[in-house]
């Protein structure tokens, strides 16, 4: 009887496991890769050639000596983390670079390891805003829950109430593959988002040269000391109040609708416009990854809704729009967090069921 029982028992276990695998939701099967290989593949798709080359520094730390490290130091120099003259930049991972990496990690809400770990390298190689991350906060706002920041001196637009700022598009520096109507509609929505939370209104005018805010597309070195660097590098930059210049990189594949723009490197115009208007008004970069004012944006990603951090930061400069209510904003943030939580809970539940069933079957 034992062989007979053993035969049917083995088949029962096999069929039970097979049936369980059929009904348990699971992730698509994929070939297991080294994490650094997966990260490199992701970076190759989502960053420009210069920043992609930085991946060879993955996991470098203080004391490392790697050819080309001086170029990475120029990156940190550009975004406000190093003040060493170019002629003094070396290929050594020295104390200055370690300090820059630590500050970068803290500013962008990353684990502060001081190493060029995978999280840090993924952020370094991501397309981003060209505005420096150097920022200041007022003393009374220095506490753990505040992540928004301002430019040095906390500049803001000084106009009589009700404040109206005008904007216009450059007649000479534009792109021809998006319609003028689509571009104008995008910026109208972006300005309206900020206007809905502060007592500032924005009006488009025809006269570009007299407008408070001047918008245009440029390529490479365009005379403002902040040259663009091609596809998926610096996407755009803007200047603090009351300068008013807002420049976008003409080399990017700008999109107003991802269903129409199929490019893998397409960048959402509305997301970038909303972010740069925040700079125009006086906000620096935020450490909150979900905030509009976070410095990076992946291709084919849309991030246009102001978060609590964005709103609190801009209202500290200009006050609140009398019609604005925080309730809707909290609901939006809570809804987003709940969706993430429920998805994780669902996956965790089925993982637990699977493990319990496996243990039960093999304990028979």
Report on the architecture of this protein.
- The chain is α/β, with parallel strands linked by helices and 364 residues long.
- The chain has three domains: 59 residues; 90 residues, Muramoyl-pentapeptide Carboxypeptidase, domain 1, CATH 1.10.101.10; 186 residues, 3-Layer(aba) Sandwich (Collagenase (Catalytic Domain)), CATH 3.40.390.10.
- The chain is built from ten helices and seven strands.
- A hairpin with a 6-residue loop joins β4 and β5.
- α1 runs antiparallel to α10 and α7 crosses α8.
- The protein is globular and about 55 Å long.
What's the short version?
The protein has 364 residues and is α/β, with parallel strands linked by helices. Helix content is 40%, strand content 9%.
Find the count of extended strands (DSSP E, 2+ residues).
7
Q: Please report the number of helical segments.
A: 10
Proportion of helical residues:
25-40%
Mean pLDDT: 83
C-alpha-based Rg, rounded: 25 Å
Widest beta sheet: strand line-up: 2-1-3-5-4
Largest sheet: 5 strands, mixed
Termini separation comes to 18 Å
Indicate the structural class: alpha/beta
Quaternary structure: single chain
The level 1 CATH classification of the largest domain is: Alpha Beta
The CATH architecture term of the largest domain is 3-Layer(aba) Sandwich
Unreliable stretches covering 5 or more consecutive residues = 1-9, 17-38, 138-144, 337-344, 347-352
- CATH homologous superfamily classification of the largest domain: Collagenase (Catalytic Domain)
The sequence of SSEs as H and E is HHHHHHEHEEEEEEHHH
Overall number of structural domains: 3
Query: Given the C-alpha coordinates, what overall shape results?
Result: globular
Might you state the CATH topology name of the largest domain? Collagenase (Catalytic Domain)
Instruction: Please report which band the strand proportion falls in: under 5%, 5-15%, 15-25%, 25-35%, 35-45% or over 45%.
Output: 5-15%
